[in-house]
C-alpha cells in the first residue's frame, strides 16, 4: 500500500483530512463528513508500514517509545500535510490534515474587510479562534502572506508543525518548527524577542507561559498573531484570563485591554449545494468600550458591543450566518445548527 497514492486521492476528492486506523477502511473527511475511501479494511501491519513511509524507520523508533508524534509530510508539487501519529489499542493510527502549497488570499477566503485593518497594525495581539478544522491556520497564513507581500519587515513564525511554507517576498520570513528547530513554544518565544521580529505568529497559545510571553511581545511593540480553540470573543478573553492564577488576573485583563487589537472567531459551514464550505465569522475590535469591559471583568457585555459595533468593523456570528443564508449559500438547517443564539438568528432571518 502506497501512502502517496492515498494522499493524492485525498487532494483529488478535496478532502480536508485522512484517518488511517486498523480495523476499518481509510477514512476521508469531505465537507466536514467522514467518508470511507473504499471497503478494504486496514490491518495493524499495514498501518505500521504506512507510518514508516511517512516518518522513516529512525523516527518510527522514537514514536514507538513515546506513543504520539506531530510532524508534516509533503508530496512535491502537490501539497503538504500536518500529521499526527498515535497509538490506540496497541496499534498505529494517523491523522493527516491537508495543506495546499499555494497560500490563499484574504479575499478568497470570505474573511471580513476589517482583517485588512488588523494586518496593517504595527503592534498588538490579533487572535483567530474557532473549533478544530475551522480554518484558523489558513486564515492566519493568508494574513501573514498579505504582510509579506506588502510590507518590509521580519516575520517570525513558531509552529507545531510548520503548515504553509512562506517564501521571502517584501519581508524576511523565518519559520521555526517545534521538535525540529526548537524544543517548545516557550523557549522559541523567549528567543524570538531577541531575534528582531516585527511580526510573530504563534501556532497556538497553549499554556500560561506561552500566553504570558505573547502578551509581553505584543506590549513591547510587536504584532502578534495566534489561535485559540474557542468560539466568540467573550469566551476567548475568559479562556486567556482563566489560565492565570487569581492574583495575576487583574494584571492580565489590564494587558489585554491595551494590546488586544481584535478577535476573529470562525466556523466553516457546508454549502447548500454540498460543494465546499463557507466561513461564518464573529469580529471584535478594540474600542474604548470593549477595552473597558475587558479591564473591568465584564466580558459578558462584550456581546452587546459586538452587536452594536458595526461602525467599528464588528459583527456577531449569528449576523454572519444570517447573511450566508440570505445569500443562498447555506441551508436553513445548517444556519440553525451553527447559530450561537438560535432565537436571535430566527429574528435576523425574518
Automatic annotation (TrEMBL):
GO terms for molecular function: ATP binding; ATP hydrolysis activity. CDD domains: PilT. Gene3D superfamilies: 3.30.450.90, P-loop containing nucleotide triphosphate hydrolases. Pfam families: T2SSE. It comes from the Bacteria. Residues 193-207 form the Bacterial type II secretion system protein E domain. Transmembrane segments: none annotated. PROSITE patterns: T2SP_E. Belongs to the GSP E family. This is Twitching mobility protein. It comes from Ruminiclostridium hungatei (Clostridium hungatei). The gene is pilT.
Amino acid at each position: 500500500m502506497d501512502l502517496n497514492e492515498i494522499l493524492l486521492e485525498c487532494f483529488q476528492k478535496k478532502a480536508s483530512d485522512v484517518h488511517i486506523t486498523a480495523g476499518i477502511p481509510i477514512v476521508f473527511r469531505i465537507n466536514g463528513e467522514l467518508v470511507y475511501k473504499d471497503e478494504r479494511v486496514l490491518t495493524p501491519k499495514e498501518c505500521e508500514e504506512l507510518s514508516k513511509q511517512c516518518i522513516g524507520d529512525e523516527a518510527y523508533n522514537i514514536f514507538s517509545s513515546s506513543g504520539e508524534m506531530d510532524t508534516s509530510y509533503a508530496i512535491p508539487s502537490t501539497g503538504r500535510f500536518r500529521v499526527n501519529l498515535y497509538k490506540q489499542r496497541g496499534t498505529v493510527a494517523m491523522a493527516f490534515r491537508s495543506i495546499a502549497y499555494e497560500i490563499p488570499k484574504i479575499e478568497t477566503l470570505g474573511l471580513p474587510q476589517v482583517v485588512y485593518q488588523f494586518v496593517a497594525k504595527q503592534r498588538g495581539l490579533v487572535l483567530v479562534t474557532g473549533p478544530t478544522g475551522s480554518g484558523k491556520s489558513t486564515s492566519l497564513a493568508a494574513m501573514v502572506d498579505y504582510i509579506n507581500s506588502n510590507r518590509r519587515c521580519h516575520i517570525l513564525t513558531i509552529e507545531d508543525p510548520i503548515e504553509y511554507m512562506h517564501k521571502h517576498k517584501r519581508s524576511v520570513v523565518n519559520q521555526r518548527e517545534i521538535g525540529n528547530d526548537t524544543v517548545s513554544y516557550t523557549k522559541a518565544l523567549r528567543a524570538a524577542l531577541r531575534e528582531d521580529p516585527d511580526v510573530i505568529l504563534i501556532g497556538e497559545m497553549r499554556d500560561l507561559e506561552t500566553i504570558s510571553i505573547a502578551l509581553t511581545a505584543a506590549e513591547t511593540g510587536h504584532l502578534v498573531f495566534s489561535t485559540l480553540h474557542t468560539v466568540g470573543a467573550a469566551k476567548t478573553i475568559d479562556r486567556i484570563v482563566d489560565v492565570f492564577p487569581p492574583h495575576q488576573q487583574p494584571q492580565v485583563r489590564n494587558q489585554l485591554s491595551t494590546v488586544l487589537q481584535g478577535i476573529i472567531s470562525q466556523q466553516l459551514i457546508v454549502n447548500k449545494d454540498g460543494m465546499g464550505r463557507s466561513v461564518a465569522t464573529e469580529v471584535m475590535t478594540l474600542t474604548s468600550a470593549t477595552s473597558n469591559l475587558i479591564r473591568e471583568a465584564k466580558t459578558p457585555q462584550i456581546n452587546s458591543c459586538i452587536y452594536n459595533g458595526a461602525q467599528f468593523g464588528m459583527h456577531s456570528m449569528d449576523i454572519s450566518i444570517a447573511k450566508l443564508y440570505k445569500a443562498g449559500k447555506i441551508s436553513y438547517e445548517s444556519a440553525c445548527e451553527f447559530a450561537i443564539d438560535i432565537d436571535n438568528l430566527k429574528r435576523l432571518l425574518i
